[in-house]
Amino acid sequence: MAHQAHAYHMVDPSPWPLTGAVGALLMTSGLAIWFHFHSMTLMTLGLILLLLTMYQWWRDIIREGTFQGHHTPPVQKGLRYGMILFITSEVFFFLGFFWAFYHSSLAPTPELGGCWPPTGITTLDPFEVPLLNTAVLLASGVTVTWAHHSIMEGERKQTIQSLALTIILGLYFTALQAMEYYEAPFTIADGVYGSTFFVATGFHGLHVIIGSTFLAVCFLRQIQYHFTSEHHFGFEAAAWYWHFVDVVWLFLYVSIYWWGS
Amino acid sequence: MFRAALRASVSGARSLTRARPQYTASVAARSYSHGKQETDEEFDARWVTYFSKPDIDAWELRKGMNTLIGYDLVPEPKILEAALKACRRLDDLASAIRILEAVKDKSGPHKEIYPYVIQELLPTLSELGIPTPEELGIDKA
């Protein structure tokens, strides 16, 4: 029929789910190949495929929503549910690492000296760079909220400024954390302390980078007039993700950096 | 129960010929503004019960010890006895000796507490075959 009699979006056939799946397969098997046979080719190929998939899939979604008008209210509602469910799944992901941390730190084994922090570990001072990092992320939560209100109020210049500031703060956090990683007196190989510390904070750092990238995409879209004061779900999704990243950091800070020291 | 009264006591030259050092006072470990206060006896009983669980697992043993050592007190010998027996059930000699080291550490400046506790625990230590850090020569770092 010429016109659809409903408000939903029947997406056109797309190759990106397949290329994404193939990319994921190549990355994971490539990882195994790298471990055993010391060749990074397959994994790199998978990574390139995955990056291309992400770029093109999300570009297509922007085309469908912003330029072709397919993101009607019910469609947007579905996208909201989707983002919320995704973030929920990420919460559970981090929950696992917190479980590991508390299992090891509430009942430290004799090999560690029966104490936490384990014997021989010099922990980072929670009131130095980690506290600064906390302030940076909290501030970025304020600036992203400022950006949201600016969008809703149709303030283009302020939106651009506050969004830029948010991204800068995100990059600042990443730079500080990278320096901390370099300067830390312990490594990931230093027993269960090192494992829990670097895996938990490492995945968090990865999520900061992902979140910063998402915000940067929103920044570019804002420059190109994609968002309206009424309809800017891409930005809202990025802001939700960013707040999630901030909250995870607060838990990390209180549990691992502060209590765990 | 060697509680907060420790800080106020004049313990210097107290001899060990008394039945037990006079450190006890009926002060609760925490001073809440309301609610029922646990007595020393109830505290001790609770911890003896904890470590006496027949199928206590290694994690619970370590968690219990860490929590207990976190308190501002030196545990009563009867609690330590239950903990040492739990170590035996779990084949964990290392933790058993570590418990003795922790007692010495928790005594702080009150150097007569540790020999007293060891004295009280001697029957248990020989029953379970647990050497003291001193016997192993690991008390000097």
SSE string of chain B, helices as H and strands as E = HHHHHHH
The name of the CATH superfamily of the largest domain in chain A reads Cytochrome c oxidase, subunit III, four-helix bundle
Main sheet: strands, sense, barrel of chain B: none
The CATH architecture of the largest domain in chain A comes to Up-down Bundle
Characterize the biggest β-sheet of chain A. none
- In N-to-C order, the SSE pattern of chain A is HHHHHHH
Find the CATH topology of the largest domain in chain A: Four Helix Bundle (Hemerythrin (Met), subunit A)
Q: Could you give the count of β-strands of chain B?
A: 0
Termini separation of chain A (Å)?
66 Å
Number of helices of chain A: 7
Number of domains of chain A: 2
Pfam family, one (chain A): COX3
Protein name (chain A): Cytochrome c oxidase subunit 3
Main location (chain A): mitochondrion
GO molecular function (chain A): cytochrome-c oxidase activity
Structural description of this entry:
The complex is a heterodimer of chains A (261) and B (141). Chain A has 261 residues and is mainly α. Chain A has 2 domains: 1-70, Orthogonal Bundle (Helix Hairpins); 72-258, Cytochrome c oxidase, subunit III, four-helix bundle (Four Helix Bundle (Hemerythrin (Met), subunit A), Up-down Bundle). Chain A is built from 7 helices and no strands. Chain A has helices at residues 16-37, 41-67, 73-106, 129-152, 156-183, 191-223, 233-259. Chain A is globular and about 75 Å long. Chain A starts with 15 loop residues before the first helix and ends with a helix. Helix content of chain B is 55%, strand content 0%. Chain B has helices spanning 5-8, 40-52, 58-70, 77-89, 93-107, 113-128, 133-136. Chain B starts with a helix and ends in a 5-residue tail after the last helix. Residues 4-28 of chain B have low confidence and may be disordered. Classes of the chains: A mainly alpha (261), B mainly alpha (141). The interface between A and B is small, with 10 and 13 residues.
